[in-house]
Input
Amino acid sequence: MRVYTCSLCGFVYDEAKGSPEDGIAQGTLWNRLPEDWECPLCGAAKHEFDEGGDEIETVRTFSVVSDTLPEAKSALEKSILCSNLARGLEKQYKAEEAALFARLADFFKAQSEPADAPAFAHLLEQVDLDIRENLVLANDAAAEAKDRGAKRALVWAEKVTKIQKSILGRYENEGDSLIEDKEVHVCSICGFIYIGNALPDRCPICKVPNWKFDLIKAG
Amino acid sequence: MNRKYAVRSVRLCTKDCLCLYVCPTGATDTENSVIDISRCIGCGDCADVCPSGAISMVPFVYPEQQPKVEKVVAAMDTLLKSKAQQERIAAALPGRLAKALEMSNRIMAEDIVRESGYMLPQSGNSRAFLQSLLDEPQPHKFPRDAVETLLELLA
Output
């Protein structure tokens, strides 16, 4: 989303906010404003506006996030972002938009280079790092900011990560006999992995009913 | 007032069909179970009477993304990168357990990215992400049309 500043009076049109006073909904893009739209403060025509504005103000009011990401996202991270947004649109019953984001998610997943020399041992190392450092730092940041949404995601992620650690540790010792003759399910809401033949009614981590679990099939 | 319209979850619908009797415009009576938005006037009567809780009233315009503190975003981003890396490793390993780990990491990563400022597909952040895809150089066969359509539909 962009902002446009009136060169005459300094009024800032922020696409994210729209201009509710004169009936322009939030999120209305500049090029979607009627050609005869006028500055609500001084009546200047659209061509009197310049793109940009008080950048600091803009960042603070609507998009704290987009300019602060430390690095660009990898193809796989873009895929994750897209599949997350596809889920969001499914929840809103917007099937067309969800399908488009799913297409993007598939595209970026296919773009992602396969891991070099993959090994379960590497997964165990990474899971350990998450438990020792990454989750701790994130939990601290969420607590300090009183961000309960982030905290909620981290509570689930921490439990699921610890369960992964336990599974990976057992797999190191037992190998494939760990899952032999057993079903493997993944909770589609929090990522909890269930190995066994007596699926619980509800996910022990996020408490969702078990029909939201996916059975993992061979091949 | 934020205008709303009715949507039906086909999975929850138990076909008691009370919505058909109370809908003043016939919007709920369709051959494919999807409520006809063009007829829905947003009165909410169908949602009120639905015995199975299958109908929800959803807004045309969603509220803005909740603001996120820089430090939280940075920490969540580090975790996202780690989970993405684990998905990548698991995807290259054989067997059901690897598949489960691949999926489990994806689900956690989605939740983490959601809570770092990408909850709403209609938000400024999500739109800025889509726009950045158009602005950056992209590989061959990049579905540019999908991004452009999304930017229009989510405007």
Notes: The beta strands of chain B are 4-8, 55-59. Residues 70-154 of chain B form one domain. Chain B touches chain A through 79 residues (CB under 8 Å).
